[in-house]
Amino acid sequence: MQRLDHFNYRPDSYSTFPQRYIINFKHWGGAKSNAPIFAYFGAEEPLPDDMHVGLLEDNAPKFNALVVYIEHRYYGKSTPFGSFEESMKNATTRGYFNSAQAIADHADVLLHIKKTLSTQHSPIIVFGGSYGGMLASWFRLKYPHIALGALASSAPILYFDGIAPRHGYYYIVTKDFKETSESCYNTIRKSWYVIDRVAKKLNGLSILSKRFKTCKKLSKTYNLKDYLNSMYSDIAQYNDPIKNTLKVVCDAIDGAANKTDVLGQIFEGVVAYDLKNQSCYEMEGNTEPTETSIGWAWQKCSEIVHPMGINKEDSLFQPEPFNMTKFVNDCHKQYGVLPQPHWVTTYYGGPDLKLNLKRFASNIIFSNGLKDPYSSGGVLKSISNSIIAVTTKNGSHCLDLGFEKPSDPHWLNTQRNTEMKIIKRWIDKYHADLRRSTK
Question: Which UniProt keywords apply (predicted)?
């Protein structure tokens, strides 16, 4: 039973809610072994019942580790006000939904587990990917007495308050496509203006709806362009080095060049991305909202303000600079509260974050695949002997957290092995310090 508010002493702050966590005891060496605890921080989605993260599960036997997965407050079964709908109902109930409360929850859960299982001297390593990776790194900064170290995979902790370039995300998407195929890149760039030109015709939206086999007639050009924007970004962010969806889609676009026009080429890319030729494609944005889409929209409009825009002339996309004034006004209109774009840098570290990490932080691995657009906001160079950047040229978003497969490229195996060797070094030093302190 988790406390609603860790930072206030009003009577309602002492209200509790059930917070869900999952433990895998299979490889644990037991309380007396002082074996480590691998704790994975859930992010902006419910934890599945059969939660397994490959990097933790593959390495738990080597460390005799206890593996713990903690669900983020407000998602899944960890809802403070009885249900997700009630928890998100108004500005008051949503007010307890933030990262500081979340990592305080995690501290409470981990101390509860250590006490319950009598594992006082088991070192804790925290793991997370993307937003969860940010949480893991922030947890090590705020609770170094609880977590010995952190692995933050694909964590864009610099994408706040103007630290990283605002156009960085879409610059890397552009770079990924351009490096895959110059002609594919040029076709996509040209397509936006072709779409705009067709849309201006008397029956333009009907033509576009027919060409892209939309399930419903397009109500506005923006919906089609937003679908394509999301598709290209998703392809770059999650590109699997074996399946190489990026190349598959570009091959489809390039391969249709002699058979059809620009719109036809783009549609062939849509078909290749979906892996099958569907009877129609949902491009109107009317899909059922999920806890992730609803919850993350609130988190973005409160504290996780990533000022991501498109302002490069050679971009794969049409220019669309980030407008903070518009963003603040839209969020205020939707939620009745103003976003706090400077709070993350105030609470966790600001423009001089790298210098500050060098001066006072330790035992954090920042892992990034350089084909991941979010790497533009990641720590890509080691800051000290224990604030270590591990990067891969062809890696994508959170790829290192997956299960080992025979088809994995050598560089991915090397990345994972490097990360676990660093973690072993931390644990070995901890045990050596423990032995000295108990003599």
Answer: Glycoprotein, Hydrolase, Protease, Signal
